[in-house]
Amino acid sequence: MKKRRLLFLRIFLGVLIVLNLAAIFGFSGENAEQSAQTSAGVTEKVAEIIVPEFEQKPVEEQKEIVKKLDPPIRKIAHFSEYASLGALIFLLLLTWKGSVWWRYGAAIGFPALYAVTDELHQKLSFGRAASVRDFLIDTAGALFACSVLLLIRFLVLRAQKKPKKIVTTTYALSSAKIEKPIRLAVLADLHGHFYPTLPALVKKARPDAILIPGDLTEYEQMVESDSSVFDFLTVCASIAPTYYTLGNHEFGASHHGNPFAKPQKKVIPSDFAAKVAATGAILLQNECAFRDGIWFCGLESGFDKGQNQPNLNALAKFDECSGYRVLLCHHPEYYIPYIQKTSIDLVVCGHAHGGHWRFFGHGIFAPDQGLFPKYTSGVLDGRCVISRGLGDHTFIPRINNPRELVLIDLTPETK
Predict the structure, then answer these.
(1) Out of 220-224, 246-250, 306-310, 367-371, which region has the weakest mean confidence (pLDDT)?
(2) If we measure between CA atoms, which residue out of 281, 306, 95, 50 comes closest to residue 187?
C-alpha cells in the first residue's frame, strides 16, 4: 500500500512539473504583441480585484492603471512560475532517500538552467529581449520556494523528535439529571499511538468512566489483529468502565491510496467485537449501555454509499432514552445538522485534531471541515465537548496544538 501511494505521489508530482514546464514554454513562445496582450489581460483581472471601483472608472483611467501595474505583475508572474517549478521538483526529489542538500541544489539549479533556455527561446525564436533581470527573478523564485520547503522539513523533523506532550483540559458541566459528581475521561484519536505515559495520566485523574469516541486505531491494525490495541483497552478497563465507538479510520473510510474516491466503509473483522469485549471495554456500534443512572451511546462514523451521514435511526433511539445520555460521536460536524435538535445531554467528539495548527485559538484545517474549521476544540452549545485528540495519522506535526486528554466533571445542578 505504501509503495503504491509513493508511486502515485511521484507520478502526480511529475505530471505537475511537466504542466508547469509546458506553461512556461507556452508563455515564452508568444511573440511580443501576444505576450503584451496576455500580460495586459492578466493585469486587468488583478486590477479588478485590488483597485477599488476599477470597473466604474473611465476607460482611459483603467488603461493607465493597467499600464502602471503591468511591469510588477509580470515580474511577480515570473517569480511565481519558477517558485512553483522549484517547489514541485524539490518535493519530487524528497520522495527518494539521500542527502537533502543535493536535492535542494538540484531543485534550484534545474529551474535556473530552464530560465536560461527560456530567455534564449524568446530571443532567438520571436525576437523578444533576453533579460538577465528576468533570469535572476526566475532563479530567485525557485530559491525562495525551495528554501521555505527546506525550513518546513527541518521544523517537521525537529517536531517529530520531540517527546509527545499531552496536556489535560478539564470542563465542568452540570445537570439536574446528575445525582452525584461524575468524572469522564475522553481519549480521542489515538490512531494506534499508545503512549506509555498516557495510562498513568488517566489513572491519576481517577475517572468514573473512560470514553473513546473513535479512531483509537487504524483499519490495517484491526485486520492484522494488532495486540497493542487490545492491550491498551485492557489497561483502560482496569482503570474505569471504558466505552468505545468506531471512527472513520477504524472503517478504513479515508482516502488512502485513492485521493479522488469518495470514502467508503470497509468490513470490520468479524472477531474484533469479541476481542474488544474480552478486554473488559464496551464497544458501542450504534448501541447504548446503561450504568449508574447514565446512558452511554455510541454513534458510528457514517460513510455508507460515500455519504458522511450518521445512522439517524440509531440517533433517534438514543434520544428516546430517559435519564442522562452521553453520546460518543467521532465527528463534531454531525452536531449542528443532526444532534443539536435532539435532547441528548452530552456529546463527546474528536476527529478534527484541533485544526492541527492552531493560531489565536483557531485551527487551520480539519477533515470534513476544510480550511479554518469552526468545530475543533472546546465546548459547543454547552453540551458538545470536542477533544483535540491524542494522536496523528500524518507526518505533519502539530503546531501550537499539544495532544489533549479531556476530563469532564459532571455535577448536580444547584437550585
Answers:
(1) 306-310
(2) 281
Q: What is the pLDDT of residue 129?
A: 67
Average pLDDT over residues 88-114: 92
331-387 pLDDT, tens per residue?
A: 999 999 999 999 999 999 999 999 999 998 899 998 888 899 999 999 999 999 999
- 3-state DSSP helix/strand/coil percent for the chain, to nearest 5? 50, 20, 35
Q: Which helix (H) or strand (E) holds 90?
A: helix 59-93
Domain parsing of the chain, residue ranges: 2-161, 167-412
Closest by alpha carbon to 207, among 76, 348, 379, 59? Answer: 348
Per-residue confidence (pLDDT) for residue 368, from 0 to 100: 86
Helix (H) or strand (E) holding 182: strand 182-186
Amino acid at 19: L
Q: Which residues contact 204 (CB under 8 A, 6 or more apart)?
A: none
User: Whole-prediction pTM value?
Assistant: 0.68
> Distance (Å, rounded) from C-alpha 178 to C-alpha 325?
10
Distance CA 185, CA 204 (A): 11
- Gap between the Cα atoms of 298 and 301, Å rounded: 10
- Specify the DSSP class assigned to residue 17: H
The CATH code of domain 167-412 reads 3.60.21
Cα atoms in the Cβ-side hemisphere of radius 13 Å centred on 283: 19
Residue for grid cell 492603471: 65
C-alpha span between 78 and 38 (Å, rounded): 13
